[in-house]
Sequence to fold (314 residues):
Amino acid sequence: MSGAPSAIEQAAQDALVRGSSSFSAAARLLPRQTRSSVTLLYAWCRYCDDVVDGQVSGSRDLAPEPDALVRLDGLRRDTLAALNGAPPSPVFAALATVAARHGLEADLFLEHLEGYAMDVDGRRYETLPDLLVYCHRVAGVVGLMMARIMGVEDKATLARAADLGLAFQLTNIARDVVDDARAGRIYAPRAWLEEAGLSAGSITDAGSAPAVAELRRRLVLAAEPYYDSARIGVQALPRRAGLGIGAALNIYRRIGTKLVEAGPAAQEVRISTGKREKLAELGRAVISVARPRSLPGAVPPAPPSPYRQTSAFP
Fold:
């Protein structure tokens, strides 16, 4: 592929820049064709997230829950229409393009939408394994699709890609725990809340900042085995793709580190990475990709995940 991006690709690129500065920075390192497909996929994911929430570009303006159910049904209908060759709008044309390029099955997209359905239902999670099911649907499945876009077919590496999605989502949950609570969404395991002396209503209280900081720390630590697993998967990617995904891994992991370092001070400030930090993590990704690939015998056991528990996984 060469020349200027199409209108659909340009709209998708704009959505990526607005929605995630961290992933947008890392995506620039991907090969042109891969970056195009990843961006098209991200545009659909972002659009679905915004439609279900009744918001624009991430601003919290939640609509009534019954309307969310209607919007979710519309997303399922339009997604299937796009995959059957009749996209109703440019963002679904983007979806149809990336699905056709890489042979992505409808089940992957529909499972991602099931994650949004869990949000619409107001699902609460008793334990970390319960939460991981949600994380897999909203982010792990996206990791699977990203890996397929990069040419991955073997199940072990696909599982590592799903692990990266889980790690990203746990980091996002840790960062946004207060904002999500204000919007009526609680993702942290109920058992963890009880152990921290927190209730759904007290998370946003200023006096709860120390307890919330401990909750964030636990979520960040829970993400660590999945980042470690994903790093092994990055080494199995083509080197140029591995550079981009490795950079994204480093940048998101750094956000988790900063959350822990900030402690209670993170209660009212959204933690992110600055330009210098992103460049530093890009540099670390370059070094990591340049190293010799790990020997099979050196690979530690993979962490438990919903994807590994499916019958499709050997």
The chain has a mean pLDDT of 85.
